[in-house]
Amino acid sequence: GGFNQSMHNVTLPSGLQSLTFCFRFNQRMENMALPSGLQSLIFRDFLNQRMHNMALPSSLQSLTCGYGFSQSMHNVILPSGLQSFTFDGGFNQSMHNVTLPSGLQSFTVGIDFIQRMDNVALPSGLQSLTFGRESIRPCKSGALCTYRLSNSL
Predict the structure, then answer these.
(1) Nearest 10 degrees: CA dihedral of 8, 21, 39, 136?
(2) According to the model, what pLDDT value does residue 148 have?
(3) CB contact set of 98 (below 8 Å; sequence gap of 6+)
(4) Strands 128-131 and 134-138
(5) Contact (CB, 8 A) for 101 and 82
(6) Are 43 and 66 in contact (CB under 8 A)?
(7) In sequence order, what DSSP letters do the residues of 94-120 get, joined into one string?
(8) Which of 37, 39, 34 is nearest to 56 (CA)?
(9) 85 and 63 in contact (C-beta within 8 Å)?
(10) The pLDDT of residue 149
(11) Residue 117's closest CA among 149, 148, 93, 81?
(12) How far apart are CA 21 and CA 33, in angstroms?
């Protein structure tokens, strides 16, 4: 839980599919070599480093930036196969000019997010869009419906 060491020049196993950095990890992301088959990448609390020079593998399906992350995503290249993208509380950066992958199915921004989204192109296949405690999902009619989530979530 308290790991906070540089990952520069660390070689991770090529078969690694899931990588989670827990509580207190806050190291620079540039030059961090992620395995080509990585499917899930989770940064729990306190990571607040720029990601614009981080090479995310094309195999990545799920990316979570935990509480405390609030860096611009403007020049971050998200993999085309990304299906789930989550920012927990603390994130409050403009998403203008951020390209969300066409295959994205779930996009979540935490309760601290108060940016405009009118210039953000949402993928047509998006199935779940959550802002704080408001979840927007397709209804049976094909329209978007809003659900209030319980305060315990």
Answers:
(1) -130
(2) 44
(3) 73, 74, 76, 120
(4) antiparallel
(5) yes
(6) yes
(7) --TT----TT--EEEE-TT-----TT-
(8) 34
(9) yes
(10) 42
(11) 93
(12) 14
Q: How much is the pLDDT for 151? A: 37
pLDDT less than 50: residues of the chain: 146-153
What count of residues does the chain have? 153
pLDDT at res. 133: 61
Amino acid, res. 119: N
Round to whole Å and give the CA distance between 58 and 39. Answer: 9
DSSP string, the chain: -------TT----TT--EEEE-TT-----TT----TT--EEEE-TT-----TT----TT--EEEE-TT-----TT----TT--EEEE-TT-----TT----TT--EEEE-TT-----TT----TT--EEEETTEEEEE-TTSSEEEEEPPTT-
Can you tell me which residue has the tokens 């969300």? 100
76, amino acid identity = V
Residue 46 tokens read as 């306190």
Are the C-beta atoms of residues 83 and 61 closer than 8 Å to each other? yes
